[in-house]
Structure formats: structure tokens, C-alpha cells
Amino acid sequence: MSANTSDGPGLVRHYRHVLLWPLQLRVEAARDWRGEPWELLTKVAGDVWQPVEDEFTLDPSEFQERHYQEFVSFLPYVQRFLYGEMRCARDRRDKGFGESPMRVMRRRDVAALRVWLTPETEPVTVSVAHADLYFFHDMDVVVLNVELYAEDLPLSLAQQMLYRFGRAYPSGWHASGQGLHNTWRSEWLDAEGRVLMHSDSSQRERFLHFVCEHRAPATSAHWAFLLQPLVQDAADEDGALRYRQIEYHRMPLLAYLALDNPRALTKEEFTRLGLVTSLRPGDALPKRDPSVTQFEERYCDDRFWTDCDDGPNTRFICTGSALIVVGDARSRYFRDANKGLLSQFRHQYFLLFLIAHFHRAVLLHFSGLLVDAISGLDANDNDSVRRFKRRIRSYFESFLRFSHRYWFFELSERGQVQSLFRRCSEQLGNDRLFAKIKDDIGEMSRYLDSDSQRRQSNTVVRLTVVTIFGLVATIVTGYFGMNVLLFSEAPLTHRIFYLVMVTAIALALTGFAIVKSKRLSDFIEALADERMDTRGKLSALGQVLWHRRSDDIQGR
Question: Which residues have C-beta within 8 Å of that of residue 261, sequence separation ≥ 6?
């Protein structure tokens, strides 16, 4: 790492920075492709993306205590979501049985990140622990996960990193051409230190032209490179796997900061650290902002924030968009990467944060689908109505699968894990969003049901009218069958003529009854209405015969 790192109370002994970027996934493969998106990624990417091996191997000697602690931290239905299940020994022989609906693909070529925060500062190089893509069975959402780490990083520099790095594109530009809020330059490096790709936030015209042409913001070059072979949906590039932005371009983050004396931080410093995704380091603190005045009550979990030698001295700050863990670097438990808090941060706390943001991403994705469906509905176009019905029924089925397979109100019986999950979900508004999407889909489903009932009722009315008028023809033909007129003794040509004539008349009357069934239904109701006078009934008959609208049939 290249930076000035003089000892002091603001030195971060161990720095972890985890980014999550939920994206909407679209698969545009060949028609004969019937596999899963992660399988298609392996096919088109070659060795760049490889599946992460399951830690639950057949050899118990390879299963570590850290894996066990992670597994038992969650409730059984969450365990089945994260790790799958095997009900008995013979299940091992059934390929795919009991597998987790979550799949993880890892990029193997990116080893480090070099960052210039501003043109005047020296570059900072941090290691890349991994760059992963999380896929979820039957859900069109993928989550990019990047984990960075470094040792002995100044706290002020760490805050700048947390604030500036992790933006999909610049939100604007300074007069000098540097992008607002993001790093001046970022470079992905391989294991030998070679530059794989660098950022292009200073290319103002490229971003302006892309938005003007596609009505969607362009992804910065270094993030677009990291996602390859996935390509942005609005781009002109060809790609079997495409993605669209779901939320704000600022990626949610987790941070682990090990300080020599974390209790030396003031309340204002903790506030700036906790609100690092929205408050630029160095800016004046908005004293009247509720997020500042109620910071500790809203965002801090201090059950382990104890001022004693035996205590972990750890503070958890969760704002929804960020989960910050600050602790004592002198504590062996806090720094332990196998059994301590560092291990829990990278696994249990990461997973609860991932699940909360996965929930939000899927719900926002459903919201967008419903908007598209209702926007394309034209009630006067039968084809549009049929497409709308098919889409809503498909979305309703997908939402049911999501709510039963992926939606959880509780993750764990461990107070700390469950508390942070509920705090994160509440800050993100997941429960309210879930209820809204459920109600919206329910309303659309009820609309489809009522529309189907209305159509069935109209059909029944038409059939009833046809039956009533067909009854007259039945009586008449029955009368002819009483041998009052001896058609059986008539010549064959006469009988054929009468048969054709009566059939034609019956068909004409039946067709007339079907075409005029709605008006005939109104006429029958008018005849049955004892409160209507003769003039109103004749007006109803005129409406049937001459297609006129009558204002006299209003008091029924």
C-alpha cells in the first residue's frame, strides 16, 4: 500500500470494505438454451468466472469450525436457502437434489485495486479478497459482490475510500473535469500488478451522449469490465447476459474497521462514519437533520459497546445502505479471522446484509414489472388485454415462489444477527414494500378475476336470451310435428324446400338473437318491469330494432 501511515489514534489496523450491487438480469441466449443463467455465464465466459465450491463436502475433515458456526447461526429455513439440504444418505446420489437456490460465481483474474482519490493524492493499493456474482434460482436478479482489505490505513483515508469508491458512474463533474463524489482514477490489477482496466469518470462527453441516446446512465468502464461478459442492457453491445440498474448508483457497503482505541472517536466522528454513504467527509454536519440528531437511536447497536478490558468494545452501525463494524484492534477476538468477529463479519453479517438487499432488489424488480404491464394495457385492444393477463398471472406465480422460498421475517435466534437484519430491513423499508407489491399484484389478480366473471356473465346472458327466443322456434316446430299439416305426404322437393326455408329462418333468428342479445336482454328486463309504462317498453323494443339509445329506461 502506498500512503502515509503514521501511527495515531486514527489508524485503521485492519480495513475491510465489502460492496454489493444488485442488478436486474436479462438472459438473451439462443432459443434452444434451457439452462440456468450461471451455467450460461460459465459457457460464454470460459475460465474468467468459475463456480465457488460448496463448503459442505463429502469429506468431514475439510469442514471447518468456522463453517459450522456460520451454518448454525441461521434458522432451518434460512439454512435450506443458503446451503440446501440432504434428508438422507441416498440423496447424495441424486444430482441436484436439495441444492441451494443461490449460486456463486467468482472472478479469478482480479487481485488488487489501485485508487487515486483526487489528482493531488498518492495512489492507494488495496487487495481484492474476491469478486463474486450471486445468482438466485427463478429470480431475475444478480448481485455483484467485491471485498477489499488493507492494513494500517489512516482513518481519514478509509472514510474517503468508503465514500468515493463504489459508484457505478459519476453524478456530475467539477470544473477540472473530475467526477463528483467518485474517485479520480481506479485501476483493477492482476496478481502481477498489471492494469486490467481503469475508470473513465473524466470522460464527460461519453456519459452525456449515452444518457441522451439511451435514456439510461452508462456504467463506468472499470465496473463494466468487472461484470463482463454481462453487458449493460441499454448498450449497443451484443451479449447473452444483460443487466439493468435497479437502484441508486451508490452501491450498498459493509465496512470493518479495527482501531487501536475506538472509544477515542467522538460522537460526531461516529456520525460521519455511519452516514458515510450520504455525507461527504469534510462537509459540515447537518445538526438539525433527524439522521444526525437521532443517530445513535436509529442506527447504532451498542450491546457489545462496553468500556472494559474483557469486553469486545465493538459498535455496529446500520443505516440500511451501510453496515459499519468498529472495534478494538487490540482484541484478539475482534481480529480473529476463523472464530472471532472478523470471521462473523465476512460471513454471518455479510449474509444478513446480502439477504436484506436481495429482498429489496427483487421487490423493486417486481414493482417495475407491474408498471410495465399496466403501461402496456389498452382495454379496447383484445390482444393487449390477453398479453396483460398472461403477464400478471406469470408475475403472480413468480411472486408466490419468491414469498415462499426467499422471504423471511426472521433469520436467526441469535439476538445480534436478528437485530441487525431487522434494523437493516426496516431502514430499507422492505416490509412496507413487500406489503405494497403484494397488494398491487392482488389488485391486478382480482381485476383479472372480475373481468373473467364479467365475460362469463355476459356469455350466460347471451345464452339465456338465445334460449328464450329459441323456445319460440321449438314450440313452432313442435306444432308442425303434430301433423296438423301433413308434410310427410308432400312431394320430396316440397319437403326439402320447407326444411331449408325453416332452417334458414331458424338460423337467422338465432343469429339475430345472438347479435342483439345485450339489447334483447334489456328488452326482456323492460317487459318484466311492472313499474315501466308501455311507452318505455316500446322504446326498449325500438332500441333493439333501430340501435337507438333510449333515456326512458332509467327507472328500472
Answer: 9, 328
pLDDT above 90 covers what percent of the chain?
45
Compute the average pLDDT of residues 1-6.
41
**Region class of 166: left (phi > 0), else alpha (psi between -120 and 50), else beta:** left
Q: What are phi and psi of 51, to 5 degrees?
A: -65, 145
Conformation bin of residue 248: beta by default, left when phi > 0, alpha when psi is -120 to 50: beta
Q: Residue 254 and residue 320: Cα distance in Å, rounded? A: 10
Phi, psi torsion values for 156, nearest 5 degrees: -60, -40
CA distances from 350 to 184, 233, 442, 461, 473 (A): 28, 28, 33, 60, 77
Q: Which residues pair with 253 in a beta bridge?
A: 19, 322
Q: Which residues of 45-65 are buried (b: 16+ CB within 10 A; e: fewer)?
A: beebbeeeeeeeeeeeeeeee
* 161-188: pLDDT as tens digits: 999 999 999 999 988 888 889 999 999 9
**Residue 555: its pLDDT value, please?**
38
d(CA 249, CA 168): 5
What gap in Å lies between CA 48 and CA 382, rounded to an integer? 47
∠ CA 388-389-391, rounded to 5°: 65
Question: 8 falls in which pLDDT band (50, 70, 90)?
Answer: very low
CA distance 360 to 354: 10
Cell of 83: 446451503
Q: Report whether 132 contacts 142 (CB < 8 A).
A: no
Q: Which residues of 409-422 are buried (b: 16+ CB within 10 A; e: fewer)?
A: eebbeeebbbbbbb
Give pLDDT, residue 525.
66
- Of 229, 222, 43, give the one whose Cα is nearest residue 128: 222
Amino acid at 229: P
Amino acid at 149: Y
pLDDT at 274: 94
Helix or strand run (H / E) with residue 370: helix 350-375
Tallying the residues shown for the chain, one arrives at 556
Distance separating the N- and C-terminal Cα atoms of the chain: 87
* DSSP state string for 85-150: --SSGGGGGSTTTT--SEEEEEE-S--EEEEESSTTSPPEEEEEEEEEEEEETT-SEEEEEEEEEE
Between CA 478 and CA 522 the distance in angstroms is: 28
pLDDT at residue 141 greater than cutoff 80: yes
Closest CA to 182 of 249, 282, 256: 249
Task: Report yes or no: 255 and 18 within 8 Å, Cβ to Cβ.
Answer: yes
Check residue 532 and report its DSSP letter.
S
Q: Which residue has the cell 364479467?
A: 454
Mean model confidence pLDDT for the chain: 84
Domain residue limits, the chain: 19-48+108-146+153-251, 463-546
Sign of CA dihedral 269, 273, 279, 281: positive
Task: Please report which helix (H) or strand (E) contains residue 496, including its range.
Answer: helix 492-515
